[in-house]
Specification:
The complex is a heterodimer of chains A (129) and B (171).
Chain A: H1 7-29, E1 34-41, E2 44-50, E3 58-62, E4 68-73, E5 76-82, H2 88-92, E6 101-104, E7 109-116
Antiparallel strand pairs in A: 1-2, 1-7, 3-4, 4-5, 6-7
Chain B: H1 2-20, H2 40-50, H3 53-72, H4 74-95, H5 104-126, H6 136-163, H7 165-170
Helix pairs in contact in B: 1-2, 1-3, 2-3, 2-4, 2-6, 3-4, 4-5, 5-6
Classes of the chains: A alpha+beta (129), B mainly alpha (171).
């Protein structure tokens, strides 16, 4: 049908797209040297993996209502298998960039990649004597 | 009395649309949990434009509750209510400038964007984590497309309905 857009329509369109692009730029800008994958289940961190330190594939099984398996490689991580009904987590595929996440909503589990300038075991910035 | 019957009819129509869109595997294209077209929003828009905010609110509340009871589960009730109510509020506000500033296009896209924002807010509260906001930019772009789709369907629908006597009797 002839649905002629009015000025306000363009305003909303531009605003929504600009907001989305800005968020994307802000997320991907924080590229750091170290990538730490954090696995969070029910709001609690169950594992932290330094993705830069992995040489051979690492497999992590998790429990819960719908158990599954997470696979980590050098620089990337993914849901390999899951018993959840929708399998959205598995279809998300590998995530490898800072700020990226993979979520399994049915099981309330999430993998996120956090950047860090320092290795995981060293949270100290500087030691003053 | 006629209004009650029409409200009931619209609630069931919205429910059917909510149910049907569960079979559209949009998650295959955009792998984000729970992403959908938002077809039920067509009914919300109809109610908002032809019957008023009050009816639209009742229809939205009951549609979300019934959908959660029938096929969603309780956690999905929070999600859909947060999204649907924010969207309704946004559309009701934008409707003030209908035909002057906005058409159904802007109203529908604005509603879809707010809907998705509301869902991310609830998701971050439920997962006690702000990382889910990483999905928001993709969901906002998706809202542009789903908003365009529902606006196109709604405007065609309104166009046809305006010609029939059904709608005129109603008002």
């Amino acid at each position: 049908m002839r649905l002629k857009p009015k000025p306000g329509d363009y305003l909303i369109l531009v605003f929504v797209i600009a907001a989305a692009l800005m968020m994307m730029i802000l997320t991907y800008q924080q590229e750091t040297t170290r990538k730490i994958a954090v696995i969070v289940q029910d709001g609690e961190i169950i594992k932290r993996i330094d993705l830069n330190e992995i040489d051979k594939p690492l497999v992590i099984a998790y429990e819960g209502e719908y158990p599954g398996i997470i696979e980590a490689e050098n620089g990337r991580i993914r849901f390999l298998e899951a018993d959840c009904p929708d399998k959205v987590c598995v279809r998300t595929g590998w995530i490898s960039r800072n700020g990226q996440i993979a979520v399994c909503l049915p099981d309330n589990i999430m993998i996120k990649i956090e950047g860090s300038e320092t290795p995981t075991d060293n949270d100290t910035d500087i030691i003053l004597r | 009395m006629k209004k009650v019957a029409l409200n009931g009819l619209l609630i069931s129509l919205a429910l059917v649309l909510s149910f049907l869109e569960r079979f559209i595997p949009l998650g295959l294209i955009v792998p984000i949990p729970g992403i959908k077209l938002g077809l039920a929003n067509i009914v919300t828009m109809f109610a908002l434009f032809y019957m008023g905010f009050h009816s639209a609110l009742i229809i939205t509340l009951l549609r979300c509750t019934l959908a959660a009871l029938l096929f969603g589960g309780m956690s999905s009730l929070l999600f859909s209510l947060a999204g649907a109510l924010l969207a309704l509020l946004a559309m009701a506000l934008l409707k003030v400038g209908y035909n002057k500033m906005f058409t159904l296009l802007g109203i529908s896209i604005g509603g879809a964007a707010l809907h998705n924002t509301g869902q991310i807010l609830v998701a971050s509260l439920m997962m006690r984590n702000t990382a889910v906001f990483a999905y928001l930019p993709i969901l906002l772009l998706a809202a542009v497309f789903t908003g365009l789709l529902t606006a196109t369907i709604s405007s065609n629908l309104f166009h046809v309905l305006d010609k029939t006597s059904v709608v005129n009797q109603m008002r």
